[in-house]
Design brief:
The protein has five domains: 120 residues, no CATH class; 64 residues, no CATH class; 268 residues, Orthogonal Bundle (Neurobeachin, Chain: A, domain 1), CATH 1.10.1540; 205 residues, no CATH class; 134 residues, YVTN repeat-like/Quinoprotein amine dehydrogenase (Methylamine Dehydrogenase, Chain H, 7 Propeller). The strands form nine sheets. Strands 8, 9, 10, 11 and 12 form a five-stranded antiparallel β-sheet that branches. The chain is 25% helix and 22% strand. By secondary structure, it is α+β, with helices and mostly antiparallel strands.
Length: 884
């Protein structure tokens, strides 16, 4: 069958879609058992695909479980050319060898490609570009632009359509096309090929539009009003501790025009520590922190004197009235704190930065003694070397992978005889994860919070330019500043030299402030939002027997109807609950209004009757033959004024979207071939993902009606649960996906059947619960901690700060620290009024983590609250009102 499929795939570009479907029907008659069911699902998907994409066909050529084998879903890019217009050429990823493993050795038949991707670089560039947008509506706006990617800028046209933004690259020159055709295995050429393809971004996936520059004339005056308006709101959030130091720095970088896509204007963050030699690190000791009021070049007194002397000498020689003979404007530093070379120096061990570093060095790695090998040595160089004043990049606070040589790159051997591998860490860091965790804690410490505004003045504020910069020893080479030279007035050769200087030797961010940056308020006066589990022993349970709320006509209470779903609707002051029988209730919920009888720090008025009953099908007959819906989620949608309730598990294989306050308004979304078994809503509430018994997951845009964006394939059985970019299937398969493009990233090494999964975004951790253990992974899939609870885990919910996680362990609610899964507290539902041994069926946290809600199998609802937190929140609100 595999050979027939291979030959069929080769003929697909010439034969019409109808003939291909007839051939597939013939193959279906040859299949038996599980294979026959797979063919039926394939034909069902082909029937709903008018373009007859190649992906379903090629997926059958691969391994039975792509995620378990480490492979990615196959097929052309979304929005790419149809089957008949795409050449059938394939290539392995850059990090794989030329040999393709065969499944014959493992007892199977047919060939198998791992992590194969489509090479669809067309011979006719213009026709392929037209094919991409041929079915789209006419563009509302079309402007010339350049797509900036690392160290390259691809010229093309940016088109704005009603539903998407599209980029059409200019046709490549003949020399570039010839070089690509000559050798397609080069990393550099592959990168240029990938950059030349058209691109499409749906408007539903766009979060923000930020202005930035790429070698333009001075545009500060045009942007000053917008930057000041956006920064005013941002700085208030930071001073009030509503956002962290790291988030604030990243927002400032975005406002200043810096981006991860441009190595010449990469985000910049400060060194915050100066102790990289001690065995232990005491973050309460001010002596371990760097002086944030001075640039890196001025931290060491003797070197600072040399820089000041250089500036005075250049100032004496500079005469701006002398024209071309004026000399160079005075500066302290000839190098810069942020440049493409510094970024590649730090990220040498990660792709695509490895390939970029090799390209800059003429096809090889630089001398080993000049490569990044040790954090303590790098800090020592920044304190002593006259040409080294670089700051840090965000990865020092977020991504430990850049410190490891997981790819086993041949980085060479130093003169001392030491082979370069993983970067050396300070003695106080036991691992790369430990270094990033402590480094991030130092950035968010009280000391750094009190002095961070001084560093902001140097990089983005009033001490970036002029006399204040000269007094602070913070003047760099004049070409690094925006608007220092008008490129349009230069000749071709001189302009090329100036552009090279600007691109490779650093660019100073756009100046955001002309006045001193305000200081952050003290944590005691305006600390972070109180968390109910900051003191787990002070949390109290309050039980409500919801099973007695809807008695029959005889007045007797009904049988237990356990809750399956709980969600808080803060804008509507309601608590939404859905029972196992599908009864949807909206209870009055006022978290900050204490109730005197019974005594509790909130007001909860149970509903007397359900507002709707959710059924699995369209009639009672469907309910008799089909189980009720068991997967739910709440989303804001495109219009924040109305909330959607999403439900799955229906007989028609759809996901149903209904207005929470008007459940009779139902919109159906159909794209699965089997029942929807899992639903997860993204953090912005504008998109969601569904998992199905047909083994696929679908990404949807939640607009006026649910619109499918991408299909994720790779599991061998029904998907059991989803969390952000993680899907959970049977047979020990936990897959991690890149949500924006639907690309498979990796599978987690879980060797037991997983039952629950969660993502802690704040701490960048993945939590997976199996039948006998709970695991914590980094975002790169590295195991960090594991624990075996004495009770089975049913669900995991991380707190908003990413420090703690709530787990349903049997009939108890457990609070564990995410870093090491240490048990901090356990709340037995029996103490809250639940029946003895009643398992926990559903639980959730409020958005601010002030309250927790748990439902048990006997139909009860237990609300956990910390009375002290309620008082702190009320005091916070009163203080903010007085400040207004």
């Amino acid at each position: 069958m595999a050979s027939r499929l291979a030959s069929l795939g080769g003929e697909a570009s010439e034969e019409p879609a109808r003939k291909l479907e007839v051939s597939l029907l013939g193959l279906q008659r040859d299949a038996e058992g599980e294979a026959a069911r797979a063919w039926r699902k394939l034909l069902c998907s082909l029937a709903h695909d008018p373009c007859l994409r190649l992906a379903p066909l090629i997926r059958l050529l691969g391994a039975p479980d792509r995620a378990a084998q480490g492979g990615a879903p196959l097929g052309p890019p979304r929005g790419g050319a149809p089957l008949a217009a795409s050449p059938l050429r394939w290539k392995l990823d850059q990090w794989e060898g030329p040999r393709v493993p065969s499944a014959a050795g493992g007892g199977g038949s047919g060939r198998m490609r791992l992590r194969v991707r489509r090479d669809w670089y067309p011979k006719d560039h213009a026709s392929a570009a037209a094919e991409v947008v041929g079915s789209a509506s006419p563009p509302l706006l079309s402007v010339p632009c350049r797509l900036v990617r690392l160290l390259s800028a691809q010229p093309g046209v940016l088109q704005l359509h009603r539903d998407a933004v599209r980029f059409l690259p200019d046709p490549p020159c003949e020399a570039e096309a010839a070089s690509v055709a000559e050798d397609r295995s080069s990393c550099v050429e592959a990168s240029s090929v990938e950059a030349a393809r058209p691109r499409c971004w749906p408007l539903s996936l766009l979060d923000d539009v930020a202005q930035r520059r790429h070698l333009p004339p001075d545009c500060r005056a045009a942007r000053r009003g917008e930057l000041q308006a956006r920064h005013a709101e941002l700085v208030d959030d930071w001073r009030s501790w509503r956002i962290s130091n790291f988030d604030y720095l990243m927002q400032l970088n975005t406002l200043a025009g810096r981006s991860y896509n441009d190595l010449t204007q990469y985000p910049v963050v400060p060194w915050v520590l100066q102790d990289y030699t001690s065995e232990t690190l005491d973050l309460a000791d001010p002596a371990v922190y760097r002086d944030l009021s001075k640039p890196v070049g001025a931290l060491e007194p003797e070197r600072a004197d040399k820089f000041a002397e250089r500036y005075r000498g250049l100032a004496q020689e500079y005469d701006p009235r002398a024209g071309e003979a004026a000399g160079l404007p005075p500066f302290h530093y000839g190098s810069h704190y942020s440049s493409a070379g510094a970024v590649l120096y730090y990220l040498l061990r990660l792709e695509p930065f490895t390939s970029e570093a090799i390209r800059l060095q003429g096809g090889r790695f630089d001398v080993a003694d000049r490569l990044f090998d040790s954090i303590p040595e790098t800090w020592r160089s920044c304190m002593s070397n006259m040409s080294d004043v670089k700051e840090l990049i965000p990865e020092f606070y977020t991504l430990p992978d850049f410190l490891r040589n997981d790819a086993q790159l041949p980085l060479g051997t130093m003169q001392a005889g030491n082979a370069l591998g993983d970067a050396h860490l300070p003695p106080w860091a036991a691992s790369a994860e430990g270094f990033v965790e402590l480094h991030r804690a130092a950035l968010e410490s009280e000391h750094v919070s009190e002095h961070l505004h001084l560093w902001i003045d140097l990089i983005f504020g009033c001490k970036q330019r002029g006399r204040a910069a000269a007094e602070a020893l913070n003047v760099f080479y004049y070409l690094t500043y925006e608007g220092a030279v008008s490129l349009d007035t230069l000749g071709p050769q001189q302009r090329e030299a100036v552009e090279a200087q600007i691109l490779f030797f650093g660019q100073t961010p756009t100046q955001l402030l002309s006045r001193p940056h305000p200081r952050r308020r003290r944590r005691e006066a305006s600390g972070p939002q109180p968390q109910m589990f900051s003191r787990p022993d002070a949390v109290r349970p309050y039980a409500w027997p919801l099973r007695r709320l809807a008695g029959g006509r005889s007045g007797r209470p009904e049988a237990a109807d356990p809750l399956e779903f709980i969600a808080v609707l803060p804008l509507e002051d309601r608590l939404l609950t859905i029972s196992a029988s599908g009864r949807l209730c909206l209870h009055k919920w006022f978290p900050l209004k204490p109730r005197s009888s019974p005594s509790c720090p909130f007001t909860f008025d149970p509903a007397t009757a359900p507002i709707a009953t959710l059924r699995a099908g369209a009639s009672a007959d469907d309910d008799a033959r089909f189980r009720p819906a068991r997967s739910y989620a709440v989303a804001d949608g495109e219009r924040r004024s109305c909330r959607w309730l999403l439900s799955g598990g229906h007989a028609d294989c759809s996901v149903r979207c209904m207005l929470v306050l008007k459940p009779e308004v139902v919109v159906l979304g159909r794209h699965h071939a089997d029942t929807v078994t899992a639903i997860h809503v993204t953090a912005d509430g504008l998109s969601f993902a569904t998992g199905s018994a047909d083994t696929t997951a679908v990404l949807w845009a939640l607009m006026a009606c649910p619109t499918p964006l991408r299909v994720l394939s790779g599991h061998r059985g029904p998907l059991q649960e989803e969390a952000a970019s993680v899907t959970l299937g049977p047979h020990e398969c936990v897959a991690v996906w890149a949500v924006p493009n639907g690309r498979f990233v990796r599978s987690l090494p879980v060797h037991e059947r997983a039952v629950a999964v969660a993502v802690a975004h704040a701490s960048q951790r993945l939590l997976v619960a199996t039948q006998r253990s709970v695991h914590v992974f980094s975002v790169s899939g590295r195991p960090l901690a594991v624990v075996s609870p004495d009770r089975g885990v049913g669900r995991i919910v991380p707190t908003i700060d990413g420090e703690l996680a709530l787990l349903s362990e049997g009939s108890a609610l457990a609070v564990r620290r995410i870093s090491d899964l240490q048990l901090l507290h356990r709340y037995d539902l029996e103490a809250g009024g639940a029946a003895s041994g009643a398992p926990l069926r559903a639980f959730s946290l409020s958005a601010e983590n002030h309250h927790a809600f748990a439902g048990t199998a006997d139909g009860g609802l237990t609300i956990y609250a910390n009375p002290v937190v309620g008082i702190q929140v009320l005091e916070r609100l009163a203080s903010e009102l007085l400040n207004l």
